[in-house]
Amino acid sequence: MTRPLPFDIAPWSVGLSGVDAERMGHRESVFALSNGHIGWRGSLDEGEPLGTTGAFLNGVHEAHPMPYAEDGYGYPEEGQSVVNVADGRIIRLLVDDEPFDVGSGELAVHEQRLDLRGGVLHRDVTWTSPAGRTVRIASTRLVSYAHRAVAAVRYTVTAVDGAASVTLLSELAANEPIPGLHPDDRVQAALDRPFVSVDHHAIGTTATLVHRTRRSGIAVAVAMDHVVSPAVDQRVETSPDLARTTIAIRLGAGEHLEVVKLVGHAWSADAAPDALRDRAEGAVADAARAGWGDLVAGQRAALDDYWQCADVVVDGQPRLQQAVRFALFHVFQASARIESRSVPGKGLTGAGYQGHTFWDFEAFVLPVLTATAPDAAAQALRWRHAGLDAARARARQLRLAGAAFPWRTIDGTESSGYWPASTAAFHVGADIAAAAMHHVQATGDAAFERDIALELLVETARLWMSLGHRGADGRFHIDGVTGPDEYSALVDDNVYTNLLAARNLAGAADAAERHPAAAGALGVGEDESSRWRSAAGDMAVPFDESRGVHAQSAGFTDRKRWDFAARDPYPLQDNHPYVELYRTQVVKQADLVLALVFAHDAFTPEEKAAAFAYYEPLTVRDSSLSAAAQSVIAAELGYLERAADYLAETALIDLDDLQGDTALGVHLAALAGVWMAVVAGFGGFRDGADGIAFAPRLPPDVDLLAFGIRVQGRTLRLEVEADRTVYRLTGGGVPLTVRHFGEPIVVEPERPIEAATPPLRETGPAPSPPPGREPRGFRDALAG
Amino acid sequence: MTRPLPFDIAPWSVGLSGVDAERMGHRESVFALSNGHIGWRGSLDEGEPLGTTGAFLNGVHEAHPMPYAEDGYGYPEEGQSVVNVADGRIIRLLVDDEPFDVGSGELAVHEQRLDLRGGVLHRDVTWTSPAGRTVRIASTRLVSYAHRAVAAVRYTVTAVDGAASVTLLSELAANEPIPGLHPDDRVQAALDRPFVSVDHHAIGTTATLVHRTRRSGIAVAVAMDHVVSPAVDQRVETSPDLARTTIAIRLGAGEHLEVVKLVGHAWSADAAPDALRDRAEGAVADAARAGWGDLVAGQRAALDDYWQCADVVVDGQPRLQQAVRFALFHVFQASARIESRSVPGKGLTGAGYQGHTFWDFEAFVLPVLTATAPDAAAQALRWRHAGLDAARARARQLRLAGAAFPWRTIDGTESSGYWPASTAAFHVGADIAAAAMHHVQATGDAAFERDIALELLVETARLWMSLGHRGADGRFHIDGVTGPDEYSALVDDNVYTNLLAARNLAGAADAAERHPAAAGALGVGEDESSRWRSAAGDMAVPFDESRGVHAQSAGFTDRKRWDFAARDPYPLQDNHPYVELYRTQVVKQADLVLALVFAHDAFTPEEKAAAFAYYEPLTVRDSSLSAAAQSVIAAELGYLERAADYLAETALIDLDDLQGDTALGVHLAALAGVWMAVVAGFGGFRDGADGIAFAPRLPPDVDLLAFGIRVQGRTLRLEVEADRTVYRLTGGGVPLTVRHFGEPIVVEPERPIEAATPPLRETGPAPSPPPGREPRGFRDALAG
């Protein structure tokens, strides 16, 4: 691990002083701003030094041919990749004709600070040019939650020690390549300049670029305007790939120039370029009318609303407190305004994974949204629902019934090039179904169930029926699929997959029963749903009797054990072929242990303990998706130190760049895993058919843990102390019954109730993680 | 199936009249000539109409980057592809300035005839030009067995009905692209013009082109000279990619021009271009000195020697007779003069599979060579031995011990781009080991065992030890590998793989015991070889007790059964994804049934019957490698009609173009399978630790079946009639004991002995093949 960037510790912000030109990518991801529709990486205003550029619009992608060394039926012929849209972040500054550059002159102050409550990125600079002229630069950047198509920058230059000529060049720059999108040179080359210019022009002080992608045919308009104080002339020029506004002023000592740059965006695969241009320019005009103060206030208001339920208080551990809020902030901004779009694995903070979304959004992120920002969760599920036609077509291509959702995608069609770890990982369908069921249960939104969830459940249930079969043993088996653990593939009866498929099948039958007319319209009859119930009831769940533990998949526990004594460097996949990883007992990421979380009521406490004891020493956490699940089960089993270790690991994944790839974007699902580790882990939150349950305990060295969840439109917050938990229900209506360590308690609206914490059951030492993969230990991690 | 080309039926030749311009590729493969070093497809002399061009030198290939949609550790970065070398086949003819073209004028006679005893390709043409001038053209083409570097054409033109001006343009043409080498456009483009010119010149009447491949750096020299009668002037011109000799003469009515074109070849990755040029020109000069008659005689002599043992007589079935000899001819010419090179899956008859060799050469072809042309077999094994360093490096890369031989290769390095069906198919190592053991046993060549076979056995044994592991059940398990059946992959304990691995391990221990010094030099100690014996003895062999049948691999018989009722078109892989094929009970090619052949003594007769009954209805024969093995086991079980069906299928695979892809080259292993179906199937030939056994029976409607095998330098021939078999041993020395239907009989040299055929055990009807994959029935097939 490289030394992490020295972010400062504060309860509601993340700040970084100085500039390390070699490690800009990390900061750019951490400081990225997004509203789920627009994403701007946290690059410096002047664009240099640069890690990787990044100005994204959710859904804007280029298509490219998929290269294969050997062909196969059903291999996707075309892939998708996120590309940079015209980039409105750039504001270059000249002071007495000398370009401001953090690498020249003297930099007395340089700080970037992400405001987790204000939803803005501040930058403060005091710079003395090589010629000796000192200026103070303050910029504040936002991607608006209220004005979905708008991002904005307020840029202020103050002449500190004498008069200075100040020139700002503010740009829209198109066709900036993103290196490393694809390992194939030809594909990369096709993505380097994805846009052709359709239009560019200036009207008054508004400049607009309109482009279209070459292959995917997506048109994008980006417009900018500037509000300048004091008022000075703006020179506005445009060319196919560059629009530039030049603002020049002579400032006296102590005087300052303030420029508010407003950038509007519009894109469509269908709309005419002129219409898009007008939309982008209209967005700018509307933001200008509202004014900077209103934009900033809108950020705060949206976050106040979010934090009211979502905030997690961790008193006594300031670094964890910061990390937890940082994580929840990224979860929020990745999805705040998605409106029926996917949420990529990196959100809109980087181009990692080519901007694709994966199953982990539904499995890890969506439950957090359902519990804290349910409207965003509904939007994400609506996107999956809109993708049903593509998923049905993919199922037909795969000779399956129902819908086969893509493993990785931007537009809903499959974009993966290695089927054993993608197409075969059919559990994505069950993950979507689980997220939909959970959302319905948590919100009580019957219309959503009828219009959206039901069809998702029905079509995924049909997939399982055609994928699986009933064996001679009478059980329902699902063979030759890949579970969450990417160090195994094409296995039979993966426990995670089978249990989630069983829930999917039963959930489809339940939903069909609740909505008979809608189900009938989908062709679901009594016969079909009773077959679903029967398959769900008879689902095979491999258990190794001789070892007394569940097998991750059939035969897993009989496989050769990984030779940990060889002390190979991690991640193992960098130095070992799949053929070795797949045939041995080594686990990249929680798989059976994830089943213990998501299908918690399918296991006895003893089975959970046996499973954790067996899989903990095999699980190398080469995926960022692992630690959170391990934290939850460690907490459930009473291994609170281990649970805290993994909580710290998932919380610091990006601030400490634990995988060395945060430069490609934050690990959104791992950040959502922080919530999971806090709420489901230490909070013991479970929900199931029999309602909501908690078993709250404090993490070590924490004085107070507080968190909230949304329950059917209301907010339930818990304040956990060492010996007791206070439950507080906000919002009118009937009381809510929850179980507290198994005992039902009734929470009346607006009347907090206190419940005592039972003593912790004695546990032995936690099972050992693999050699070389011991967690840092939360105390070390949180010491920074 | 398209209507097959109407080859005529003759005992020792294959002839075809007329020209079907749409289907030239098929004929070009059938009529391809080779000596294992040079390969010339059977294109027309004048080059058009053309299916696919093809002038190959064994080992000459171009390298290309391997394109991947997603990267993985251990994926080969570079692939190899056969390319055309400078092509010396072309002789264009002008008659009174009109170009001879089978598509113009009138073609009274057009016949090509492959002489299976003479080793030449004849062509006879009587053509009347559009202007009304009639000529007779006779060409005879050969690729010399005696002069390894030489191919030659005798081309004769006779003026039939009046005086004619005749002009011949005889060429060497380089950089002729082969379409369809690779599915990736960029790779294909790199292979289209693989050569840069290094030198071109003419000295006297000899013209030479020297090229070098761009990426693999292989230099190739091709020279030509012409012997012309009557003597006329030759104009010789060269340019970088074309050398041309022009011969013009005025023929009176009845007069003829005879041109013998001699083409010499040389290539090397190391030698200087000048040296190669001299080698190619020297080969031409030497052939010219020998003369045409000598070249032709050399062909006959080599084939007489081959047929003396290898010939299979099938009296009463003329089409089968022809097909069997055609098959054995291609087996011979593919390997006659390989001299430590690989034999591609298509021989040198086409560029299918990019010219790669696969495991089926060792499994199917090499035993035939050992039994009929043991020196060629030894050469092929020496090539594998020479590839040990590359195979050891590959094993290290894969984190395995010993040697991991490539799945597909030209130069010995892995060139496959889909690892689940290549790298994971580790059985290739055991197939090589089996071929080496069989060769040693059949030849008694102790020096070969010590110098070549031992190291092959030792290093492959080491691979198995590192690949497998001992389970809690005490058995040795090999998990996560792929067996012969390409509709399954990454399975545990594939019976074929495990049984051949066990033989490999035990064979390595045996060989080490026989050659202790050589084994010691390889670091083999008593400990290691006893671990091999122990693993071999404890090898897991999955047997499904409830169904009373071996499972092709662990759990196979529990999988979902393929839905044959859907009547999907074959081959299934064209319309079904791997993820479906792999998880269901459907078998592309004999796998367990192949184990019944190669590890025949590991099964009881009852187990064989149960296995055939179980797998026959699942085996769709989408691979050409299947029918022969099924024929052998059908014959062993007494299903002689079914055995004949499959014998006919494998024998006619290319003459009838049963898979529709013979244009890419002949199916060499399937052709070798003809020998297997005759000798191991109807002949009942088995060899094992306890010697050689036969159980000869006639195929239906056959009066006499005769075949031979080489046994330790001698030839044993069998003449099988309905009620008896005559055994005839040629060559001096001690008598040979063989088992005839289980009873030992002693065959004295030069003293034929007769043994009676016991009555055929009653069998019920043979198990049904899959719907839509019933064999044609040998009677229909052989009726043509």
UniProtKB/TrEMBL annotation, chains A, B:
Record protein name field: Glycosyl hydrolase family 65 protein
MF-aspect GO terms: hydrolase activity
Annotated ranges, domain Glycoside hydrolase family 65 C-terminal: 686-747
Amino acid composition bias (Basic and acidic residues), ranges on this chain: 773-784
UniProt organism field: Microbacterium gilvum
Glycoside hydrolase family 65 N-terminal domain span: 18-268
Keyword Ubl conjugation carried by entry: no
Family indicated by similarity: Belongs to the glycosyl hydrolase 65 family.
Region (Disordered): 749-784
This protein's UniProt keywords: Glycosidase, Hydrolase
Domain Glycoside hydrolase family 65 central catalytic: 325-676
Alphabetical list of Pfam families matching this protein: Glyco_hydro_65C, Glyco_hydro_65m, Glyco_hydro_65N
